[in-house]
Amino acid sequence: MLLPLLPLLRAAGCRRPAAPASAAAAWLRGAAHRGFSAACRRRAALPAAAGAQQVTSFQGVAVRSLCASSPHEHPEHGRLVYKGNLAKAVLGVRFFSYSTSIFNLFMMPYIMLKTGIGFESLLIQAAFYGLIGFFTFVTPVTLHVLTKGYVIRLYYKDEMDTYTAITYNAILAEKATVFHQKDVKIPDITKMFTTFYAKTKSMLVNPTLFPNPQDYNHLMGYDKSFYFNLEEEKEAGEKK
């Protein structure tokens, strides 16, 4: 009875281990496929990360270059030794004065037509024109005279011993005045809007705004040695 079944049993025994072997092979193929996909993803992500790093480094370099460069650096003028703290205030006041003057000029014909001042007596017309003219012309001219010598920046060239003073001109543009240290003259009487004269032009600076006090002393000539001849002074006193 059992003899005919022996071949079947042998065939079944031979086929039983095949299932685990085929499952192991399938698992190995799946793991290899997953590993290959992950490796591909990592390789694809490397250029993107490198590109992002390059963009970030470029942005950092650009920001550092912008922070390092200053709009007030002028190598042709020399080293910046002074910067006035009222430059924006002076510019704003003068710009406002010019704006109101232009507005008055445009509004004057309209006011004359609406109020009928042009048909009034000469005294009223003179008073009106005088008032408008004062705010239109006198105020801007006065502000220009008072602030034209205000130094907004001062540069110094060591090798030539020259200074370049930056001020505002009549049209609110920056004006450069170059002078030598020997051209600096200190007024005998202290003046409100004059610290020193550069040749014949008055200049106004604040001594406390010099980062290095030695720069101010050299500008004013305080670092020079003073020599007094007592005999000459005595003779001059006797002659008087």
Nutshell version of this structure?
The protein has 240 residues and is α+β, with helices and mostly antiparallel strands. It has 6 helices and 7 strands.
Q: How would you characterize the overall build of this protein?
A:
The protein has a 4-stranded antiparallel beta sheet, with no helix packed on it. A 3-stranded antiparallel beta sheet has the order 5-6-7, with no helix packed on it. The radius of gyration is 44 Å and the shape is elongated. It is built from 6 helices and 7 strands; from the N terminus they run ααβααββββββαα. It has 240 residues and is of the alpha+beta class. α3 (87-115) runs antiparallel to α4 (122-147).
Low-confidence stretches: 1-9, 11-21, 44-69
The number of strands is: 7
Rounded mean pLDDT is 74
Number of helices: 6
Q: Helices, strands, pairings?
A:
Elements: H1 6-15, H2 18-68, E1 79-83, H3 87-115, H4 122-147, E2 153-157, E3 162-168, E4 174-180, E5 184-185, E6 196-198, E7 201-203, H5 213-220, H6 230-239
Antiparallel strand pairs: 1-2, 2-3, 3-4, 5-6, 6-7
Helix pairs in contact: 3-4
